[in-house]
Design a protein that fits this description.
Elements (H helix, E strand, L loop, with lengths): L9 H12 L4 E2 L15 E6 L16 H7 L4 E3 L8 E3 L2 E6 L5 E6 L13 H14 L9 E8 L2 E6 L5 H5 L10 H9 L15 E7 L3 E6 L12 E6 L3 H9 L5 E2 L7 H8 L2 E5 L4 E6 L9 H10 L2 H8 L4 E3 L22 H10 L6 E8 L3 H15 L3 E8 L1 H10 L7 E6 L7 H9 L15 H13 L4 H18 L2 E7 L1 E5 L3 E3 L15 E3 L2
Parallel strand pairs: 2-11, 2-12, 16-17, 16-18
Antiparallel strand pairs: 1-12, 3-4, 5-6, 6-8, 7-8, 9-10, 10-11, 13-20, 14-18, 14-19, 15-19, 21-22
């Protein structure tokens, strides 16, 4: 792997995603007040926080995924944690891999058409994958792919340069949409082709109307290959401010809202007679420790700080209880998460013992930075500062824009911060090849490995697990767990918490469960009026 593939796009997404950590994915009971024939449910009204940076499904790498996941489809869908099957068919009806994980064969669904009238076949799938390899915002996910070919009208074969989990790649929310070849050709000639609101997917909805910064209107696709969506129209008001969305929701102006202030979840549920649901999310908060200089070059000191963190208080204060303590850097529900990976618990006496053992009984001072645009970090950083003060460690806190924080951290570890608070998530549902690799695998140029930790033993485990994931996932899991055990013992970061997704489920709507593999997408097909 090449760590330089790490997403620079994260700098653009962090502000947007930071808001999502302090908000909810939810619905109101607006539709519950409607009675009569099914025709009265033809329109679903929505307040959505997601901005549209592009309508190009290939280059998309931001929050427009909320809409694109209804218009386009990948080869496979990854099911939520706990489902009976890991994947379900989408454009591919079935698939298999060779024993060595180097050849993947996908059998393409017949009778599917794109919204522009083009027929879906194996050649169209190949064209989409080749376009993604060449210019996708997430083109790096296709790095293992050597060649891809259509062996007949309904069969696509991928040959890899090394074993990799192409089922996970093919189910990615970025860089894996299947797009009409005619539209791909037009976009190759004109990079602004899609921006007028053109769509060329196979999904249950088409893009009917778009007013930049104002509204998105989706319309049911009559020739959709699967069961038709219940709602004929989904009328979405782009509403970046969560308080405004809440007001629209409680006033009955919309049936559904994608973001409401987390602190108001209970009151909204009470006002609307709704149920509060929680689910895993792919998000993860951690604080990277600068391991290149004293005192943080000593694992005993890093362990002491890990024992000093008030984990439960952080979750209660910054996530209002809607979170789970991390098990290193792999979010709950995302491969290769494991309950067998140990956690630290707050133990100030043990923290003081370790500091004394390391020769720092009198304490020391540290410099901590966090992203000023992230309100969740702003809430929990003071808790860390106060807890560390109780073991004699003074923390000087600096809030700065994430871009500035990141650039300063990458410039020179010798002059960088001591503690870098980070909000992170994997691009697709493999936190081994992403979180565990990107955050802690050593490299000549640090990108998100801003603990600057260098462990050949850890690197070897991560590299080995990455080559096993496509051929022997159980062996990959076991190897990743060894690597996570090393992270626990060596403590190059403070592993804080995984925020949960919170849904306000209304009595008037039946909605599908939140899927942590597609956190930026609301699947309108899975929302129907309650019986």
């Amino acid at each position: 792997m090449d760590v330089t593939r790490t997403r620079i796009r994260r700098t653009a997404l962090l502000t947007l995603a930071a808001a999502s950590a302090a908000s909810l994915v939810g619905c109101t009971a607006g539709a519950a007040d409607q009675e009569g024939s099914p025709g009265e449910f033809d329109v679903l009204t929505v307040a959505a926080s997601a901005a549209v940076t592009t309508w190009d499904p290939v280059t998309s790498f931001s929050t427009e995924a909320l809409y694109l996941g209804n218009v386009y489809e990948p080869l496979l869908w990854k099911n939520a944690d706990g489902a009976a099957e890991d994947f379900r068919p989408a454009i591919a009806e079935s698939w298999e891999t060779s024993e060595d994980g180097l050849t993947w064969t996908f059998h393409i669904r017949e009778g599917v058409t794109f919204h522009d009238g083009e027929k879906l076949d194996a050649d169209a799938v190949v064209a989409s994958i080749e376009a993604a390899r060449a210019r996708a915002g997430a083109s790096f996910i296709w790095a293992p792919l050597d060649t891809v070919e259509a062996t007949d009208e309904s069969t696509v074969v991928m040959h890899l340069s090394y074993s990799a989990p192409m089922d996970l790649v093919a189910a990615s929310t970025y860089g894996a949409w299947i797009v009409s070849p005619k539209a791909l050709e037009a976009a190759a000639a004109d990079e602004q082709y899609f921006e007028a609101g053109i769509d060329a997917g196979t999904g249950p909805y088409t893009l009917k109307e778009y007013e930049p910064g104002e509204k998105v209107v989706l319309e049911a696709y009559d020739d959709y290959w699967d069961d038709a969506p219940h709602y004929e129209i989904v009328d979405i008001a782009i509403t970046p401010d969560a308080v405004t969305a809440q007001q629209m929701l409680t006033a009955g102006e919309v049936d559904f809202a994608t973001s409401v202030p987390l602190e108001n979840v209970e009151s909204v549920a009470q006002q609307t007679g709704s149920e509060i649901r929680t689910a895993n999310s792919p998000f993860n908060y951690l604080a990277l420790l600068n391991t290149t200089r004293p005192p943080l070059d000593d694992p005993l000191v890093r362990q002491a700080l890990s024992y000093a963190v008030p984990y439960e208080d952080i979750i209660d204060v910054s996530a209002l209880g809607y979170g789970t303590q991390s098990r290193t850097a792999v979010p709950k529900g995302i491969f290769p998460y494991s309950e067998d990976v140990p956690q630290y618990t707050q133990d100030l006496d043990r923290a003081r013992e370790l500091l004394a053992q390391a020769g720092h009984a009198d304490g020391f001072s540290l410099e901590l930075t966090y992203a000023s645009e992230n309100p969740t970090e702003a809430r929990f950083v003071p808790l860390i500062k106060d807890a560390f003060a109780q073991i004699g460690v003074e923390v000087n806190v600096t809030a700065m824009l994430f871009n500035q924080q990141w650039e300063a951290a990458k410039a020179d570890p010798a002059s960088a911060q001591d503690i870098f608070v980070l909000y992170y998530w994997p691009t697709y549902s493999d936190a081994g090849s992403d979180n565990l690799y990107s955050l802690f695998h050593s490299s000549d140029v640090p990108f998100f490995n801003l603990s600057y930790w260098n462990s050949p033993e850890y690197d070897a485990l991560i590299d080995e697990a990455g080559t096993l994931t496509g051929s022997d996932r159980d062996a990959a899991q076991a190897t990743y767990e060894q690597a996570m055990q090393m992270l626990y013992e060596q403590a190059p970061a403070l592993f804080l918490f995984d925020p949960q997704a919170v849904t306000v489920a209304p009595a008037g709507l039946t909605i599908g469960d939140f899927n942590e593999n597609y956190p930026f997408t609301t699947f309108f097909k899975n929302i129907v009026p309650a019986a």
